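Q: Could you fold this chain for me?
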Amino acid sequence: MNIIPSEGIIPFGGIAVLNISCRPTVAEKFDTRAKIAIRDANVIDLRIGGTAQIADVEISPEVLNFTGAYVGGTQTIPFVIKNKGVTRARVEFNLKDFPDFSMDLKDKSEEFKNPALPYIYSLEIEGNTSLECGMSFSPKEVAVVEFAIQVRINFFQSSKLYTKYLSSAPSDPITVPLIRPCCVQAIALQSPLKLSSTKLVLEIPLHEMNLNKNITKTRNLVLHNITERHVTWTLDINNTGNLFKDGTFNCSALKGLLQPQEKYNVSINFCPKHPGKYTAAIPMLLNDIPVCYRILSLTGEVKSPKLLFDPPFIFFTPVPLNITTVMDVKILPQNYFRMSTLRVQIPTVRLLDGQEIQPLTVKFPKGSIIRGSPNGINNKMTCCLTLNSPKPVSFFTNLLFCDNTQNWFSLPVAATAENCILTTYPYMAIHLDKQKIILKNDKDEYLRKPRDLVSPPCQDAKSFPPASIKKKDTTSKLNDAESARGNIFIGVEALPENFHLDKSESKKDKKICEQLLSIEEETKTHCFFEQVVNAAQIWFSLFGWPEGPHSLCIPGSVRRDVYKMKPYSSTSSPQKFSRQNDFSKYNKTIYDVLLHLSGTMPPGISSSQSLPVDNNERIIQLHRQHSSLLEFLNAQGGCTSHILPEFLLEPEDYKRWIEITSSTHTTPESSCTPQEKCSVVIEMSKFEDWSKRAWTDIFLQIYKVFVLSRVVPYNSNNMPPIYVQNAPKFNRCFASSNLYSDSERILLNWMNINYENTRHVIWKNCPKDVFPSERWIVNFDKDLLDGLVLATQLGAYCPFLIESHFINMYTKPRTEEQYLHNCLIIVNTLYEIGFDIDIQVCL
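A: Sure. Below is the predicted structure, expressed as structure tokens.
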């Protein structure tokens, strides 16, 4: 028995989930206890009981007889594995010593493969169910093979133990799972027939078909009898649909007799009625034996023009308003035999107020003409996509490219522009050292220009300074108080070099944007992103749940906890699962967060939501739930256009979702995802990065629309006035911004006023040369690094901390130790007032 985790920390009012696994070695009932030691509390006795049952598995048929397998071919015999017991059973087949044999499962979702052990086939079967499988024999030389497959059930050597059990006394009880050995008998025959090819590709250019609709492409298949006996052959076209009935494919002969050493040509004709790609798999039978000798693969295609895009989809980094970002897209034309000109249809985007804008522009730096070629191989083109929006917008759309013959090609594009740092934090992460915050009045005059950053000295020149005191954004005093009156703009400006990028800069920016979702570790951008993830985890762990703190991990626990919903089966009554759902009431999901913060649930989702037991049904329902979640956030003003519902699935379920959509070529009817979003498929090696970014953005958007939005526009009655008489009477009112939302600007105004008021109170007895200087507070990180701004905010509402803590701070810190001293005082004051949210001084 194993309990995971064996130790840990439970937040106050929170829940810790213990995963208890039992791997019994004998069939018996068990009843035991585990002691849970809690620091400064009584020991808890956890009683654990259950019943271990013996798995009952059988294979039918018990003998697999391969009698007509030819060298170079493949013969497959189906068989069924039945689990006659009531518990799940794990079955393993070991084919290590027989490389010519392999297994294939009809339901791939039940299979577990270890790349290091490709010859071991493991699968799990639920109780009272069966699984269809197939054993394939692909001989490489003439041979006679006979062996028994080594089968393990629940990690017991069941097939070997069965033989031992037969030789033991009949009265001995069965204590481990046993299974009758499955025997394999195979004979590999010499190949009597040689084929010139088993894969035939027939291609017709589209313009040739337009001139003559009855055009036919022909390939010859040469059959050579390499034996001294007569050989009869047959092409079985019964399972090819209408491809031979309607004349799309045609063979000069479907059967025949070959004399010893004789050669025969079979003409394969391709005569399509409509443009497209057609495939057919034709089994070849020899000597009237109902065993496939070879599979003849036919591929016929009308080579219609197509455009491939690199990258195949564009996800713009969210940017502030009126900031321009550019992405280069390589266009790879194919099958253009004549010159053609591309044009682009850019869809408009509807805003919340009903207004339509066009934030995207497209340019072809080297022209939009595709040069035709006789072989249909064309030169690549470059397309520049530019995003710039003066108003908040978030959309997922398709750019449509059209050529002279009205062929349309789509490029998925997701883009967001907004004035909220909870949305545009990726832009800030990429431009940490490039973009500075500026202030301008209504006369377009700069009130605050960025100056050089001053870093506190480090004791070791080779070491990096602490993160919390690494850089201090020094600000100048206002030279003219009168010039600061009126409306003030706070935000970022586009860097001059962004407007005219040369090739090297354009490629560099494109590389940075692509690295956003797979950021290199130990870079400033990666550290910034990890800090954002950590901040979201801490806040929602402490304040996001209805019944107190509950720890979460992005994306691991929030993605996994959705799967702990109550299961149900379409063929079983709900009462069957009632006993195993007693713990479901303790499970917390992201929907509990939504209900706690907004008071409502996404449409179609309830607090007692259930998940189907069937894998495909479960994935489709989860996809539908995630779609409803995203639509709910969008309706509240969230920016989630770059998040697709499948990004929120577990990695294995994401692979299954791709298989579901690719097998049907359409989105399942039960999914409410727009059809055009299904064209985005990401590599599994990058999925974890995408999923982590997606879940992080969902929590940030939840915070934005349900928490930050509660900071409403202020008036003279609920904003602290500037009451210091000897202070300049300026109006620190950030009236507009392309970076900060209304709520964020209100918080900045609040911090500025509190700082200006309280610095004169806390450090009123300080000499003039060390008195804290006047400053603009224009961000939520760098301007707070020295601790003075946070001290004034706390001092404004907790004046009893002034004499005991804040007067001991360095008012003009210079060294690393002085910054550390101030930060420790801030942390101690938070503990003093009981505001314990695990804030620490970074060293």
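A (continued): The mean pLDDT is 81.
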